Amino acid sequence: MAKKKKRSRGPAGGRRPDAATDGPAGGANLERRERKDEARRARDAERKRIARRSAFRRALIFAGVGVLVVVALTYFQRAGSAKPLSAAAQSAAAAAGCSGVETPAGEAPGGLHLKSGESYSYSEHPATSGYHDPSPLPGQPRIYPSPVQETQAVHSLEHGSVIMYYRLPNEDGISQDVVNVLGPVATGNRATYLIPYPGLPDGTSLAFTAWNKIVTCPASITADQATTLAQGFIDSFTCTNNAPEGKLGDGC
Q1: How far apart are the first and last CA of the chain?
Q2: Are 102 and 210 in contact (CB under 8 A)?
Q3: Measured at the alpha carbon of residue 158, what is the angle toward residues 153 and 161, in degrees to the nearest 5?
Q4: Is residue 73 pLDDT above 50, yes or no?
Q5: Residues 160 and 249 sit within 8 Å (Cβ to Cβ)
Q6: Are residues 60 and 98 in the same domain?
Q7: Over the stretch 131-155, which tens digit does the pLDDT of each residue have?
Q8: Do 184 and 92 share a domain, yes or no?
Q9: Which end of the chain is more exposed for a tag (fewer CB within 10 A), N or C?
Q10: What gap in Å lies between CA 104 and CA 120, rounded to an integer?
C-alpha cells in the first residue's frame, strides 16, 4: 500500500503570517485610521475655534452692556444745572426788600468733614458752605420747630438741599402767616426744609439758602411774596450742580 503523505505544517508555532499588518490590506487600514484621526483632530480644532470666537463675542457684548450701564447711571445720577431766579421770584424779592442771590464764599469746596458731633464756628450766619458733620439732616421731618445742628444742615446743602431759615415771630421775625405758607412749600418740594434760626443777622428775618447761595429778607415780607420767592429759589437751586453732591438730597 502507498504511504500517506504527511500534511505540511506552517512556520514554527503553527502561526500564519499576519496579512493584516504585513500585506497590502494592512497598509490600507493604517491609512484609513490616519485619515480618520486627522479628520477628528480637524473637527476638534474647528470646535475649539468656534468656542473661542463665541466666548470673545460674549465678552464684547458684556463689555458693551457694562459701558452702557455705567453711562446710563452717570447720566441719571448727574445733577441738573442751576438757573437764575424766575422773573416772578425776582419781582417778589424786590417788592419785599430782599437781597438778590448772593455768593458768600469765593471758593466752596465740598467734602470737608468734621468728626461726628464735632462743633464748628462759622463766619457766616446762616452758613451755606464749609466744614460739616459727616451726617446730613435726615429726609424727614422737613419742618423743624426748633433750631438744628448747623454742621448737619451745611451737609444737607452740600447734597443739593434748600433750607429756609426764619426768625420766630416773637423774636421780631416774620409773621405767623408767612411761617404757615412756607410749611407746605417745604413739604411739597424735594430736599427742602423750614427751620428756625434765632441768630440771623440784624435786619434779616428770613433767609433762603442753598450751597454757597443766599437770599435774605426783612420781617415785612408778605405771605404771597415769600411763597413766590421761595418757589423760585427752590426751582433754581434744589438738586442741581450748584452743590458739590447735588443729587444726594432727599428726593433728588
Answers
A1: 127
A2: no
A3: 65
A4: no
A5: yes
A6: no
A7: 999 999 999 999 999 999 999 999 9
A8: yes
A9: N
A10: 17
Q: Residue 9 domain-assigned?
A: no
- H helices present in the chain, as ranges: 19-22, 24-77, 87-96, 150-158, 176-187, 223-237
User: Could you give the CA distance from residue 217 to residue 32 in angstroms, rounded to a whole number?
Assistant: 100
Measure the CA–CA gap between 235 and 189, rounded to whole angstroms.
9
**Is a pLDDT exceeding 80 seen at residue 129?**
yes
CA distance 143 to 74: 32
Residues 72 and 169 in one domain: no
Query: Which grid coordinates belong to 49?
Result: 475655534
What DSSP assignment string belongs to 135-147?
Answer: S---SS-SB-SS-
In the structure grid, which three cell numbers stand for residue 242, read together? 450748584
Whole-angstrom distance, CA of residue 193 vs CA of residue 207:
12
Q: Residues, the chain, total?
A: 252
From residue 6, how far is each of 9, 12, 46, 186 by CA, in Å?
A: 9, 16, 62, 126
Closest alpha carbon to 128 in 244, 20, 221: 244
User: Does a cis peptide bond (omega within 30 degrees of 0) precede residue 24?
Assistant: no
Residue with grid cell 444745572, as numbered in its chain: 81
CB half-sphere exposure, 108, CA atoms < 13 A: 23
Mean pLDDT of 95-104: 98
Cell of residue 161, nine digits: 438741599
- Identify whether residues 69 and 152 lie together within a single domain: no
Do 64 and 119 fall within a single domain?
Answer: no
Range of the domain at 64: 29-77
